[in-house]
Amino acid sequence: MAAAKKTTKKTTKKVVKKPAKKTATKKTTTKKTVSKKTATKKTTKTVKKTTTKKVVKKTAKPKRTKVVCISHKEDADGISSAALIRQAFGGDAILVDYPGQMEALNQVVLDEKLKSLYICDLGLSKKTQDEFIDIMATLRKNKVAVTYIDHHDIDPNVVKALEKLKVKVIHDINECTAVQVYSAFKSKLNDHASFVATCAAITDYMEDRPIGSKLLQIYDRQFALISATVLTYNIVGHQKEPDYLLYLVEELADSKFPHEIPNTFEFAQIQVEKLSQMIAKVKDGMKTMKNLGYMEILDSGASGAVNFVMGLSGKDVGVAYKERVDHGIYAVSVRGSKNCKVHLGKIVNVLATDLGGSGGGHDRACGAVVPKPKIKKFITELNKKIK
Ligand SMILES: [Mn+2]
What we know:
This protein has helices spanning about 1-15, 20-25, 30-55, 75-90, 100-110, 130-140, 155-165, 175-185, 195-205, 210-220, 220-235, 240-255, 265-285, 300-315, 345-355, 375-385; strands at about 65-70, 90-95, 115-120, 145-150, 170, 285-290, 295, 315-325, 330-335, 360, 365-370. The protein folds into 2 domains: about 10-40 and about 60-265, inorganic pyrophosphatase (n-terminal core) (Alpha-Beta Complex), CATH 3.90.1640; about 285-385, Diaminopimelate Epimerase, Chain A, domain 1, CATH 3.10.310.40. The chain contains 16 helices and 11 strands. It starts with a helix and ends with a helix. The longest helix has 27 residues, at about 30-55.
């Protein structure tokens, strides 16, 4: 393990140097994007001039020119969504995980230059939805155009509240977020965008859905699978390197295939080795209750281990959890097999909220944030609720 970790760091360092270089060559995107970006730049310049002149007279409000996309950083759906938004509208991405979601929104709401905001692949829970609506109300009061695009289970009242605020809601639980972004903004995207969306659909287990499956048909299945998988391993393995994740967003927005991004396959091989070691660890450390298998994960992400916990436990539900020492919580991942007939996302949303945390997601894949002392209770209660 230690050896593998060292190798990771080495490779990462090599790769990390790329973003700086790439940012410089950013402008060599498709013709469409180039003209758009130049346009945006011109506007920004003009604005700067005007503001500096006016500043002397009065502290005028800066003109709102910024496009921002807040997206999920932990998987290919979130990263791909951010890439497609970038290709269609330019602007910058802010990549977050669930514990960091609200913090990012609260930051962005203060940005006086924000003109339009896209929020992608970030589901809401009972714990977060009210605060989310409040933030949206402030943004709308400031005339910021907001588009919320997602596919996680959502309280219909939240959709109503958002639509009342004139937040554009694009929500379909049957297609992954990137596929929905692709469908909604197709006219502003190039041909390669369908491949980026396909990779996202594969990682979210949604390549069998109406639009997802049509997109996959465009490409050779094996080619799409290996690309999606390598992309996913690079995302999962670089969670602590925000600059690298932003670089991935840029490269995908720039119509690169995952294999064209330097070192991605080599890095994926390291991840595969780690996962194979995970199998042995799960066999050793996993515990079971009547209806589920569970395990605390110490040296990798919970979401990378949870499928093994489910599979190797022989149960229809697997739970893996990892402590987030800085937050005093456990990040919990839950997966259900095809035999699992209950909606895990809904159960986990209620349960985690009752225990002072938050959670939610899909029927057979979801996550939660649970206060550290409540983790055992969370598992025993979940076990009771899923028989
Ligand atoms: Mn997703």
